[in-house]
Automatic annotation (TrEMBL):
Organism: Clostridium saudiense
EC code: 2.5.1.129
Stated name of the protein: Flavin prenyltransferase UbiX
Keyword Flavoprotein: yes
Positions bound to FMN: 10-12, 36, 93-96, 128
Amino acid sequence: MKKIVVGITGASGSIYAKRLIEVLVSKGIQTNIIATDKGKQVFNYELSLDLKKWVEELKNTYSNVKLEDNNNLFSGVASGSHGFDAVIIVPCSMGTLAEVSHGLSKNLLCRAADVALKEGRKLVIVPRETPFNAIHLENMYKLSRIGATIIPAMPGFYNHPQTIDDLVNFMVGKILNYLNIDNNLFNKWEDTEYET
């Protein structure tokens, strides 16, 4: 069974994390969720959902989901021997981006990201900020150079989205594609006849 760690920070875009988690657990993938304090607050503010209660409701249907304590550096995901496949930080705040890019492992989320990098596992950063300043770009560039993948929350419009769900599914589908997790959340680009 694949094991994925999903990090949620205080950037806007909690809806991406929610949809990603729903898809992962429905596919039988062990999903460990780590949320910063601000991540929990923004999740509640944007989605009108208490993250802890929402995960407990998911557990009524799926046994493969766990909400981690971000202060618990004794968690399995804090160790390279735990064997998770990837860490996805979605949405990723610029503060968390800076901590990860500078190797600051002062909480479980940053430690799990550090473990992914040191063990050569996939680390996916989904930054949600606009505009980016030079510090943000330098931090993303630094992480990209050492093996992280940056998938900005920039949905495409070539599949003619009609709803917010279409936009969210596009981004989550892109993340899943990168992780080689089969999905049909959006229509992939195909040869297209177009008259100019």
